[in-house]
Amino acid sequence: MHAQEIHTFLHQFFKENHCEVLHGNEHYLTVQLTIDMDKKIMNRPFYWRYVESVNETPNPAQLTLITDMQHLNSGIKGEAIHLGSPRLHQLFRVTKEMGRYVKMYERISDAHSQVILTPWIGVNYKVSFISHQTKEMLYSIGMNLMTGAVMNGFHETLCTRQLSSEPSEQVFHLPYIITPARGIDRLDQVIDQIIEGEDQSWIEEAEKRWKRDQAVLDYFYEGQEQKPEYYDVEKQAMEERFKPRITVDIVSGGLFYLK
User: Fold this and answer.
1) Helices and strands (DSSP H and E) totals, the chain
2) What's the helix, strand, coil split of the chain in %, to 5?
3) Which of 64, 102, 192, 224 has its CA 20 to 30 A from that of 170?
4) Which of 126, 115, 5, 155 minimizes the C-alpha distance to 67?
5) Residue 126 contacts residue 248 (beta carbons within 8 Å)
6) Do 94 and 111 sit in the same domain of this protein?
7) Rounded Cα–Cα distance for residues 150 and 101 (Å)
8) Is the domain of 124 the same as that of 218?
């Protein structure tokens, strides 16, 4: 998951949760949190308990998140966010808690004639490549539910559109031919193909390290017919550490009607 992908996710996350983006560029953004979002992510339970107990005017926090420290102009202070950072995992968790699936319409203004919107299903996948080291990637894929056409980088496309939870007037929504459930099944197949096409050298490296450490362990207990319990514990721990595995999680998704 690259810095730009994280930045796009953040921008869309706060936009969909009604948190105003006060300023920023492609390397950082500063947002004004809503009361609800402040309570969810800023860990200020005592502040909110006090404000509500004395009926004081609430002051939700502003949050600056930096996605690319190397290209950021000096003077900007904020919280660095990257793949694996606690803040990003927190936002992924909040996304799941608030409901992973949405239904959105492209906003059409000043339409003098009826505008046709096409249904798309979009899914954001988090793929974790796990062994002695862990790499995580975010893939955003969309499918046209009329034609079956697949679009990579779907989340980035959504960020260029004005979206609303309510349809605009003078808009006709095409009925989907491919059901959303079937669309997700097909996107699951697409993400499997993408994973198969990724560099697999990390698997070989993990297995080499596993065999090397196993050989060292075996050397220390060579010649012992009855291995002590510690040997089995270490062997199991080694397998848990080095055994290559891939997990796929759906972070969010939805049905989108686009022009």
Assistant:
1) 8, 11
2) 40, 30, 35
3) 102
4) 5
5) yes
6) no
7) 19
8) yes
CB 62 within 8 A of CB 30: yes
| Domain identity same for 52 and 142 | no
pTM of the model: 0.67
pLDDT digits (tens, 9 = 90+) for 241-256: 888 999 998 888 899 9
d(CA 119, CA 104): 10
85 and 121 together in one domain: no
- Same domain, yes or no, for 186 and 91? no
Structural domain total, the chain: 2
Q: Do residues 136 and 86 both lie within one domain?
A: no
Structural domain including 137 reads: 100-259
With contact defined as beta carbons under 8 Å apart, do 248 and 125 qualify? Answer: yes
Reported as a pLDDT band with limits 50, 70 and 90, residue 1 is low
Place of tokens 């808009």: 171
Rounded distance between C-alpha atoms, residue 151 and residue 121, angstroms: 10
For residue 2, what is the DSSP state?
A: -
* CA–CA dist 137, 155 (Å, integer): 14
8 A C-beta contact, residue 254 and residue 122: yes
Please state, as a whole number, how many other Cβ atoms lie within 10 Å of the Cβ of residue 113.
Answer: 5
| Domain shared by 88 and 133, yes or no | no
